[in-house]
């Protein structure tokens, strides 16, 4: 019996810290999935059908949020 949520974990080291991406879904070709990415306490989500594109979209959102935060702290 399969109960609970199966998450995949992706860690990407950067100069600003470690990006941690939690990947949920994408079990078959037609399944929708969600990616939760976080860096230094900031978190974003992205949903889609293509696993790679969704991961890239989540990391791009995180980068944009991180860049905006740096602009305001100067």
Describe this structure in words.
- Strands 1-2-3-4 form a four-stranded antiparallel β-sheet, covered by helices on one side.
- Helices cover 31% and strands 42% of the residues.
- With 74 residues, it is an alpha+beta fold.
- The protein has one helix at residues 51-73; strands spanning 7-14, 17-25, 33-39, 42-48.
What's the layout of helices and strands?
Layout: E1 7-14, E2 17-25, E3 33-39, E4 42-48, H1 51-73
Antiparallel strand pairs: 1-2, 2-3, 3-4
Average pLDDT confidence is 85
Beta-strand percentage? 35-45%
Percent in helix: 25-40%
Q: Note the overall shape.
A: elongated
Main sheet record: 4 strands, antiparallel
Radius of gyration: 14 Å
Write the H/E string, N to C: EEEEH
End-to-end Cα distance, whole Å, is 53 Å
Flag low-confidence runs. Answer: none
What is this entry, summarized?
This protein has 74 residues and is an alpha+beta fold. 31% of the residues lie in helices and 42% in strands. It contains 1 helix and 4 strands; from the N terminus they run E-E-E-E-H.
Using brief descriptors, characterize the structure shown.
74 residues; alpha+beta; four-stranded antiparallel beta sheet; 4 strands
